[in-house]
Amino acid sequence: MDQKPLAEVVSSAQVLFLCVPSWVLRPVIGEVKQHLSPGTVLVSVAKGVEESTLATMDQVLNDEASGFPYVLLGGPLIAEEVANGQWGVGVAATESETACDAVSEIFRSTNVLIEPSSDVHGVALSGVIKNIYAIGLGAISVLFPGLNFRGWFTAQACKEMGDVVVALGGKKETIYSAAGLGDLIATGFSSDSSNHQAGRELAESGKPQHKSEGVASLSQVVQLLDGNTEGYMLLNMLRRSIMEGKDISDEFKEIFKG
Question: Is 249 exposed, middle or buried (0-12, 13-18, 19+ CB in 10 A)?
């Protein structure tokens, strides 16, 4: 199949999906924005924090795509499941009702349901933070087979995620939506998830073997919290295990002692 030049594809698009990792979103926008037509809606699926600036994805879009409406698409949308015809839910976070309607129309009559959200920063934060806690759920699947402990971890993670989102400027209720808790469960329990796999690798070898969004974002989230993770039990455990090389099995034992 012949591939059209990037400029031709971008200039003719009414809605442009930016399906790239968080660490390359800024340069990708810089590449495409010179070809955008007025009013083109940008849709980003990236979930992370930019390393050099500590900007969340909504902040990157505000910086680089000023003047264009944009949507952050969060929620439980595991690509392998959607591609196989299974259902997914996308949370369309935007300040533009027109942009939300455009995205909803694209997915109408498909296996993806779209829910709107006006808490753009909260959805951006939720997408970042749930990836980190999903690593813990992956580790638990190795260290504590079965669902009982994963159920406890999920409840505790949701509480902490809400506190972190509020501390960083989002709305707590967003964590209890599909963008937060819903995505945590899907990402943390799915063997197709790179964050789940990173957690398994952490438990099996002491170190994630590849760069997932959660692994890439952890140090930035710690910096956004000014290094203070002591009040977040699970986040602090993941910080010690991933960033400081502590054995995650030993870290869980310390939780039990507490």
Answer: middle
4, 33, 130, 253: the active-site residue: 130
Catalytic site includes residue 130: yes
Provide CATH 3.40.50.720 ranges for the chain: 6-120
For domain 122-257, the question of CATH label 3.10.20.30 is answered with no
Nearest to 107 by CA among 187, 43, 161, 162: 43
Percent of the chain with pLDDT over 90: 87
CATH homologous superfamily for the domain 6-120: NAD(P)-binding Rossmann-like Domain (3.40.50.720)
**What's the predicted TM-score (pTM) here?**
0.92
What pLDDT, in 10s, does the model give residues 44-67? 999 999 999 999 999 999 999 988
Encoded tokens for 52: 């050099």
